[in-house]
Amino acid sequence: MPSVSKRGEQTPLSPFRKLIPIADRVKAAGKKVYHLNIGQPDIETPAAALAAVRATNMKVLAYSPAEGNASYREKLVHYYHRFHVDLKAENIMITTGGSEAIQFMFLSCLDAGDEVIIPEPFYANYNGFAHIGDIRIKPITSSIETGFALPDKEAFESVIGPKTKAIFITNPNNPTGCFYPQEALEELAAIVKKHNLFLFVDEVYREFCYDGQDFFSTLRLDSIRDNVIVIDSLSKRYSACGARIGALITYNQEVLAAASRFAKLRLSPPGFGQIFAEATLDVEEAYLRDVKQEYDRRRQTVYRRLQAMPGVVSYKPGGAFYCFTQFPIDDADNFCRWLLEDFEYNGATVMLSPGRGFYATPGLGHDEVRIAYVLNTTDLEAAMDCLERALIEYPGRVENTVGVQNNALAL
Amino acid sequence: MPSVSKRGEQTPLSPFRKLIPIADRVKAAGKKVYHLNIGQPDIETPAAALAAVRATNMKVLAYSPAEGNASYREKLVHYYHRFHVDLKAENIMITTGGSEAIQFMFLSCLDAGDEVIIPEPFYANYNGFAHIGDIRIKPITSSIETGFALPDKEAFESVIGPKTKAIFITNPNNPTGCFYPQEALEELAAIVKKHNLFLFVDEVYREFCYDGQDFFSTLRLDSIRDNVIVIDSLSKRYSACGARIGALITYNQEVLAAASRFAKLRLSPPGFGQIFAEATLDVEEAYLRDVKQEYDRRRQTVYRRLQAMPGVVSYKPGGAFYCFTQFPIDDADNFCRWLLEDFEYNGATVMLSPGRGFYATPGLGHDEVRIAYVLNTTDLEAAMDCLERALIEYPGRVENTVGVQNNALAL
User: Fold this and answer.
1) pTM of the predicted model, to two decimals?
2) pLDDT tens digit string along B356-367?
3) Is the CB of A4 less than 8 angstroms away from the CB of B239?
4) Which residue range(s) make up the domain with A227?
5) CA pair distance A203, B74, nearest whole angstrom
6) Are residues A271 and A296 in the same domain?
7) Residue in B6, B14, B41 nearest the CB of A111
């Protein structure tokens, strides 16, 4: 029997994937598991957009154009106007989820052996997509002490080398929830321009910026207009992870031409998903406002509860629906497994993502976890009850050695 | 401005893609274009399966499992029983179209620099997927004189080298329409076993085998059970190209594990598409029987018309809905462009795929085209009227030099 490829064996998985079989087992045995491990919201998908799919009346479910339906791309132009971004339909390529947009971006801009700088911790699946393209990720470490703010110019420039072709950021950030303001992005633009790099920006959490902060899209950075490539997705915005509709957006015509080759190769993005997606553009703005308010309530809940847990280091995230937190534990992988297998409180437990997989630098994140606040506040309170109790009972609890105490992070 | 990647610039496109802007232009100017260039059928999608999507009543359009919905995978097991293939749900991974299944298969089994043998002419997008993975295609040439039958053992063994890891066939074939019978596949199995190779088989045209021939799936080749990986798709079977639902099927647990890593990376296949797909399994068998009869009528039409065109070399294809044909022309790329730009008959013309792009060996296919008989017989007759006239008028017409005359191919 022939053996599988090395890249097939070695493609890295998301940090929580290893725990899924354990979670399935304990759930089958009757334990309630609060899933704070994955960005799958419980928020209702806009009913009007789902209704548009139910109202379809086609005879033939045909291929769409490789770059997506023209009508959808043209309407999307107006969506971005709300963020003061001025696009033409041709600047927007519809993809099968944000995931495919990441692949097209990597393959279009980077050859095997090329390097991309990413502040860590970062969305773990970037590792896998880089691995497919034999692209090297050069991490620069952001820190919980600053609420995982964007590293400074010196940090970026310390890792820029002859093979460096891009910087990749996520704003607002997954897994940290950090919001990058306009000034930080303008500083980044100067680095990008000076070193002639691409700036890759995953903006899928654009709609979820709290505390009155205005989202600033890197597509507005006129000084590096042709360097910027933005990843987008409906999954989080409209609680529509199953639609598998995203986008790659850029003013750079050469990148569009290259990405178009990959798009044509896979023929077209999903047909029903595009019908759904086009209909989301007619959803009342109140929907997104309400969803943001709901996530904000959850954010406050998680923050308040974490602050009350002795030895936990946390901060109030400015965007998205994640919080990256340091626990007084020996090892987050062990802790997350123990939570599922050996712990319960009121018949329930909580599933989290261990931190290590979000770092490229070995050893980092060993006592950190990502919390996705994707459940309603009632469930979230119950999940926090579990977590609070678990941190007391966990046999691998250690005293916090970094000298940062709770409530000490004034961000 | 940073430059795009070499692989972005060099990813090969389908042979007809270059002609699409020309076709769009002449259509906008009022010329009717009969599209025989692409496998986009005009057959109606099963109404009952479309109705299943209209009947959805979900609150949250969530991620499905990365490998596809369990209920769908379990029901698919029964579909393959009809072809005497005995699978478990775990052997079937649901993918975003057959295209994604090809990518997962390539990446899971082949590393950069590995070789895969493919009889040419072959489905041109295999080139692009191989290019992404830096995989080398070693072509062996099949010939119109045999109706593009599978090359013999010696032909395969002449190109097997230390880097060869797989043989890849399409049965029934796109672009040739050739049907590979059980005996030919068993001979292939012996080669595969002897040299410890993977056997990749694209079976997406399985339902369309004519002249009473029974389709034999390579999943029934027990002697190489763990070597076989099958690509499947709903696109052609149910005229549902826009659903973007396919499958990767294998008994090989290691391949499934590797492919699962790539599947998890892109999170899940399309949600609505899977609902549609599951409903196709309840569509009455009469649907597929009727569709096959319709394609058979079209096949007879195209064959009859081609046989009557002086200098054209053709054969009666045994499966799928393609015919690969030799014309008395200087250059098929020129001819196909001329058909769109410079020719019309009764206000119409026909769009075909030039043959060169289906070969990996330079120079081959220069006077061949692929005809996709995806239109109803009325349109097909009109398209053949255009073609017949065009072959007379075309300034680059040459006399047939290979010594094979029409009707000389007794297959």
Assistant:
1) 0.94
2) 999 999 999 999
3) no
4) 57-280
5) 37
6) no
7) B6
